[in-house]
TrEMBL record:
The protein's name in its UniProt record: Phosphoinositide phospholipase C
Listed GO MF terms: phosphatidylinositol-4,5-bisphosphate phospholipase C activity
InterPro entries: C2_domain_sf, EF-hand-dom_pair, PI-PLC_fam, PLC-like_Pdiesterase_TIM-brl, PLipase_C_PInositol-sp_X_dom, PLipase_C_Pinositol-sp_Y
Swiss-Prot/TrEMBL catalytic activity: a 1,2-diacyl-sn-glycero-3-phospho-(1D-myo-inositol-4,5-bisphosphate) + H2O = 1D-myo-inositol 1,4,5-trisphosphate + a 1,2-diacyl-sn-glycerol + H(+)
GO BP term, pick one: lipid catabolic process
Keyword tags: Hydrolase, Lipid degradation, Lipid metabolism
Keyword Cell cycle (UniProt): no
Signal peptide: none
Gene3D superfamilies: 2.30.29.240, C2 domain, EF-hand, Phosphatidylinositol (PI) phosphodiesterase
Record's keyword annotation contains Lipid metabolism: yes
Species assigned in the record: Steinernema glaseri
Span of domain PI-PLC Y-box: 656-772
Enzyme Commission numbers on file: 3.1.4.11
Length: 977
């Protein structure tokens, strides 16, 4: 007895579905099904767009259960909702070749769908696919369809009202069968569009039932006797819906033949003209999407520039899946691994490399005689270095063959560094770039090679032996990390307990046990710095009525609330260093200096048995308080974060150093020299800086440096819970590798994912020309960039449709929302909330939800809110932001980011996305987009000639004819009229 499964794909390619039957061998028929899928019951399925990995493995015989004997090979199809919630679907078969064919097909099709953009009708077809193909019945209930569109109101009176409106609206009222049931064979694209039109009351029988009159008024202005002729429809496509920034020679207008085909495709009676319903069908279709997928395809011709000319998709602490201090680490962050998952850690991790990330970070530490990947010697769990390297090799080039960059944060001794180099060479083999290319030697003035020349190569970033890089030694780490923060030197009588080494490293190391409080320490932030002041203080054992008390206890009491305490842990687990800064769990009895960070918000009373006079003398001799000094506070944090990423070994071993070529890290001295050198031409040297390092004074210099050299930006050390920073200001000055925490689905990560949808999600996007030209000066508050024409963008938010699909909690009987609109560009024109909180400044009025439609109008006015971005300084890779916000909680429930330079203007249904940047269709916004080149009023005539050169030529010829023979010209005009 065993289970058999039949894998199927629906005709439209939306879902992979299957049903499993238990079968028993019999003498008569051989196999007999015992449990078939009941009529009307959905079988198992997954959406292709959710697939992130497929892997075929060969399982050992002794690992298989008895009923699966003979089914040696397993195919694991992995899906996820975001980067940290994978689900595994494992299928077994005895034929490996068959599974490999399935693997290739599913991966190819899934990633093809991820690169496409579709209209609202497509997404309704997608979400209904399980109800159409995973059920044996021939019809689907109208109630089922409406419940899918509005899951929040499932089986509610509101949904019943929508069903009643639909079945009494054209064309469903003309069905010969019961209108509450629709045959699956009739659910084509136009029928699904009609369902949306009727459910949202876009074209009701009674005009007073219109949810929005904007589209009806638009159609009435173009139509003739209620019909939109092909000529008028063509004018609409070539003027209202066309991007005026496109050159007419390179981007031709829609031909008359194409216009007629569109009319016949969407017309209710297959004629060469459109009724209002046919016009709405077109607006909801794939022929009217907000972005043209062809302009986002992989383009090999753009990959011949040096590496410094590209934005490179980069991650920070790639092995982490939650917060930084006590979070989990896992090899599966690099790829979704084996078909059988035995560890909870391995079961729920994202797929960074397969998503298109091309720069990942490895934080390497000594673990006895082995090497572990662990974050900063913190409480995070560790994973095997070898297992991570194997995972990188397996997935590095499955979805993109462009080079992978490994950022090594090296904390290992020389013996383990040699072992690291051996593992790299052994596992990567020919994939590892061990020497510079012949035509790109490591010499001054020679540019970096292009991604094409480094195709299917892995490069290592790190310090090079022989250069000036020397990082601090282990013995000096604690005293140098916090030079600006108070340091208390103690001399104690008790000997120091020995450190307990890490446990032996396995494929995935067990997380060290900690108390719940250890996972999230709270740091007190304030407005003052207590800094070091000599002379040192010697504290000895003191006598009290209760007896002798150790010095560290009295010192703790002396400092009182100024001491930031961590969790009470056993000595071997006390984290004296986290993120390169010292967090005092307790004043451990050390003979060396202990750095205590003290940032106080207000004076705190001292609690001690020491006399007040002695107490005052101690504090006066030992510390100096600088209050209300923001510059000093910023300097402390900046120096602290610059220190945290320094390697804790003296010199990189030569064996590992020999593997480093085009990604050589600069020393601090070299970084300072580049700022004073007019032209720095050592292009294989690169900077690695914290997010806070890019101050206004360095923006201009960094923009010049990044033309020919690489820069990697990483989050500041205080981001304990893996939140992200806004990457846009770093992109604006040309930083190539802006590393983010992929495990966190927030707005910065959504910006990153939107940017790297370009070029087929291959991980490399060509920077704007102004950031690749050393002759162009890009300043922090630039309002003009030479050779860059600004854009002007106007956004009209008409309404939102099917927001209930977003799955709000059932406690919301109706969703009260508003829409935020923002812009991400150069600092001069980036539109944020005036409070500086990072929220977009422009907001619609509070919306009114009527059924599946939400209208955002003020005080009952029919005028839709408009927002004008008068001047977009750098349109290329500027992004316009739409956020649907629950009005009462101010929580963003859906969002969408669109690149300004590739926007398709006109009336568009913008399909929304969730926090993980996955499509939330059919939920959408209806907007009117107007975009054009910004020009001064005096230059509008010249700009029009550039936008429409053919019209300009015709006008020039007419002007010439008029002056050559004015009488004949006037006569010809009269004859034409």
């Amino acid at each position: 007895m065993h289970y058999t499964t039949k894998l199927r794909v629906d005709p439209k390619g939306h879902i992979l579905y299957w049903n499993s039957d238990m079968v028993v061998n019999t003498k008569d028929s051989g196999k007999r099904p015992l449990h078939a899928v009941a009529s009307g019951q959905l079988c198992s399925y997954i959406f292709f767009e959710d697939v992130v990995d497929v892997r075929v493995t060969d399982e050992a015989e002794d690992d298989m259960k008895a009923q699966f004997k003979g089914y040696r090979y397993a195919m694991d199809i992995v899906t996820n909702k975001n980067f940290i919630e994978p689900r595994h679907n494992v299928f077994k078969h005895h034929d490996e070749r068959l599974l490999l064919k399935w693997e290739a097909f599913v991966m190819r099709w899934a990633y093809k769908l991820k690169r496409e953009y579709h209209g609202v009708t497509y997404y309704l077809q997608k979400v209904l696919s399980p109800h159409i193909y995973c059920c044996s019945s021939e019809s689907v209930s109208m109630h089922t369809i409406i419940d899918v569109l509005s899951p929040r109101g499932s089986q509610s009176a509101a949904n019943h009202k929508i069903v009643d409106d639909v079945i009494h609206d054209y064309p469903f009222r003309e069905q010969t069968t019961a209108p509450v049931l629709i045959k699956k064979s009739l659910l084509n694209e136009n029928t699904l569009a009609d369902l949306i039109i009727s459910a949202c009351k876009m074209a009701p029988k009674r005009p007073r039932d219109y949810q929005t009159k904007e589209l009806k008024d638009l159609f009435s202005r173009m139509a003739d006797c209620g019909v939109l002729r092909a000529e008028s429809f063509g004018t609409f496509l070539n003027e209202t819906q066309r991007d005026p920034r496109l050159n007419e020679e390179a981007h031709r207008k829609v031909f008359a033949g194409t216009v007629k085909k569109l009319c016949r495709k969407y017309s209710t009676n297959q004629t060469d003209h459109l009724e209002f319903r046919g016009f709405l069908r077109f607006l909801l279709s794939d022929d009217n999407v907000e972005l043209n997928a062809k302009r986002f395809q992989y383009d090999e011709t753009t990959l011949s520039h040096p590496l410094s000319a590209y934005y490179i998709n980069s991650s920070h602490n790639t092995y982490q899946i939650d917060e930084q201090i006590g979070g989990h680490a896992n090899v599966e962050i690099y790829r979704q691994g084996e078909s059988t998952v035995s560890s909870p850690l391995i079961a729920h991790l994202p797929l960074v490399l397969l998503s298109g990330c091309r720069c990942i970070e490895l934080d390497c530490w000594d673990v006895g005689d082995d090497i572990a990947i662990v974050h900063g010697n913190s409480l995070s769990s560790a994973v095997s270095f070898r297992a991570v390297v194997v995972a990188i090799r397996e997935t590095a080039f499955r979805t993109s063959d462009l080079p992978v960059l490994l950022s090594i944060e090296n904390h290992c001794n020389k013996a383990n560094q040699r072992r690291m180099a051996q593992i790299f060479i052994e596992i990567f083999g020919d994939l590892l770039l061990t020497e510079a290319l012949e035509d790109h030697p490591l010499e001054p003035g020679v540019p970096l090679p292009s991604p094409l020349k480094l195709r299917r190569k892995i490069l290592i970033k790190g310090k090079k032996t022989g250069s000036e890089e020397r990082s601090i030694s282990r013995s000096n780490t604690a005293s140098s990390q916090l030079s600006e923060i108070a340091e208390v030197e103690t001399v104690l009588e008790e000997p120091e307990p020995p450190l307990v080494p890490y446990p032996e490293v396995c494929e995935t190391m067990p997380k060290r046990e900690t108390s719940p409080g250890a996972r999230r320490p709270t740091l007190q932030r304030g407005n003052a710095v207590v800094k070091n002041c000599p002379p040192p203080l010697r504290l000895r054992t003191l006598s009290t009525p209760e007896g002798k008390v150790s010095s560290h206890s009295h010192l703790t009491e002396l400092l009182g609330s100024r001491v930031i305490k961590g969790p009470d842990l056993p000595w071997s687990q006390s984290p004296s260093r986290r993120f390169g800064m010292t967090i005092v769990a307790e004043l451990n009895e050390l003979e060396q200096s202990v750095s205590v960070p003290i940032l106080r918000r207000e004076p705190a009373p001292l609690r001690s048995t020491i006399a007040s006079s002695e107490r005052a003398r101690v504090l006066q001799r030992r510390s100096e308080t600088i209050d209300e000094d923001p510059k000093r506070l910023n300097a402390v944090q900046k120096n602290l974060e610059a220190t945290q990423h320094k390697d804790s070994v003296a010199v990189t071993d030569s064996t590992l150093s020999n593997l480093i070529n085009y990604l050589q890290s600069m020393s601090p001295r070299e970084k300072e020299q580049t700022k004073t050198t007019k032209k720095y031409d050592v292009h294989y040297k690169m900077r690695s800086e914290s997010e806070t390092a890019l101050e206004k004074g360095e923006f201009n210099w960094a923009a010049v440096f990044n033309v020919s050299n690489l820069t990697r930006i990483y989050p500041r050390g205080m981001r304990f819970f893996s939140d992200n920073y806004n990457p846009y200001k770093h992109w604006a000055c040309g930083c190539q590798m802006v590393a983010l925490n992929f495990q966190t689905s927030d707005l910065p990560m959504q910006l990153n994912q939107t940017l790297f949808e370009e070029n087929g999600r291959a991980g490399y996007v060509l920077k704007p020309k102004c950031l690749r030209d050393p002759q162009v000066l890009v300043e922090h508050h630039s309002t003009r960039i030479r050779a860059v024409i600004p854009d002007q963008l106007e956004v009209t938010v008409i309404g939102a449709f099917m927001l209930s699909w977003l799955g709000m909690n059932e406690q919301f009987k109706s969703l009260v929302s508003h829409v935020q609109v923002g812009l991400y560009d150069m600092p001069a024109d980036t539109v944020h909330h005036p409070s500086g909180g990072g929220k977009p400044r422009y907001c619609t009025p509070k919306g009114v939800e009527k059924g599946l439609v939400t209208i955002y109008s003020k005080d009952g006015s029919r005028d839709a809110p408009k927002f004008l971005f008068k001047e977009v300084v750098k349109p290329e890779y500027a992004f316009v932001y739409f956020g649907v916000v629950e009005h009462n909680s101010n929580k963003v429930i859906a969002q969408r980011l669109l690149p300004v330079h590739k926007l398709q203007p006109g009336y568009r249904f913008i399909v929304l996305r969730d926090s993980a940047n996955r499509s939330a269709g059919p939920a959408c916004l209806l907007v009117r987009l107007k975009v054009r080149h910004y020009v001064a009023p005096a230059a509008e005539v010249i700009a029009e000639q550039f936008e429409k050169p053919l019209d300009a030529i015709r006008k020039r010829e007419e002007l010439r004819d008029m002056f050559a023979n004015p009488l004949e010209y006037e006569l010809s005009k009269e004859l034409e009229s």
